[in-house]
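Case study 2.
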Amino acid sequence: MDLQVFIDLQDKFDKESELFENVKAAIKELDRSCRLASAKLSKAHSLPMHKLKEVTDAIKPQFATIQQNIGKLAELITPVTFYKYQNMWTQKLQDACALVVFAVYLEEARLATPADIKKHLGYSVNTTNEPITEFVFTLDEYLLGVISLFNELGRLAVNSVIVNDVQRPQEISTFVSELYSGFQLLNLKNDVLRRRFDSIKYDIKRIEEVQYDLRVRGLIS
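Prediction:
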């Protein structure tokens, strides 16, 4: 019997094991950068509106670092292995998308588009059914990042009142209503997306309660 077949197979297993460890290390660095960016961005919850630019300016260098981290990960992955290992990094890319979505809202009071993801993180959102030819954000990762904005805005509505900004919850309420209407146009069949979308109603309820309380107290018309 020629044992070379098994020797060659073991070489393949060793290479796959090395790739797995390298991917894990790259994801660890990406996770560290995302957590630092999240900590910086969370300062928006304790600042009045006129000081939000300080937060959005401070977060931009961190986006550059996240882009570099994703680049190191992308160097390890070929189109053939993309979906084989995607489950290892998908949560971190969702987190990165969520950071961009929240930052764009704070800076421009609008929804971040896939073009904004490309601008801030350097990689495109795959919005087509074409085969993967390069490292990309999936559409699910982008949409889950957008859904996370409901939770952030629910917190922001409450915290805005704490810093005596009683007008911002009204603006948040209008934006959230429009964003929710947009999601209702989608036929979400992905189980994770569907479950996360169903949880939005709790964030909307929290924002509505803030609105109601402000009106009862006569703080807004």
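The chain has a mean pLDDT of 91.
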